[in-house]
Amino acid sequence: MSKQNVAQEILDFNKNAVKESFEALSTISTQAAKTANQLLEATPNVPEEGKKAVDLFFKENQKGLNNQKKFVETGLEIDWTSPNAPVKGLEAIESLYNSAFTQVGALQKESKELLKKATEQLPKEAKPVVDFWTETLNSNYQTFQSFVTKNFELAKKVIGDLAAEAPKAESTKAEKAAK
After folding, report:
1. What is the pLDDT of residues 78-132, one digit of tens each?
2. What's the 3-state SS for 10-51?
3. Which of 41, 45, 126, 130 counts the highest number of beta carbons within 10 A?
4. Full domain range(s) for residue 86
5. Domain count, the chain
6. Taking the model in full, what pTM does it have?
7. Are 16 and 45 in contact (CB under 8 A)?
């Protein structure tokens, strides 16, 4: 058996393991959501906003799982021996983070209304505390997102600089060998 065949069999095994693992996680997540919904429906004292929040959590969890699966599958498709592998790897990671940021933005938007309805039931003295906590959390998230975005920009620049230098190093070796 050639090295290429062994490498392909290992890659195929890993792809199948990833596929099966994500299918199992998806099934577990779906069953957990169904169980949670059944328990919440059987409990009359749980407010409607609480039920919606749990449902929202499971829906967003499934979206995150799908994004992660896509990222891992993309990583398995990259030819890690090629010169552009670092760029492709960085692009895959950036795509995962961008999906996560989009998902968090949607979650913030959807949960804002639920939070508003839930805080209506609190005493008026508690509302400023909840508002402060929410604003602080969102502000810190925005700061984190900004740092991650800047890190990707820096990483792209570094990879670009390294790629620009690589041919120079190879031509220098070839020039020395010719002498």
Report:
1. 887 777 888 888 888 898 888 888 888 888 888 887 788 778 878 888 888 888 8
2. HHHHHHHHHHHHHHHHHHHHHHHHHHHHHHHHHCCCCCHHHH
3. 130
4. 3-178
5. 1
6. 0.66
7. no
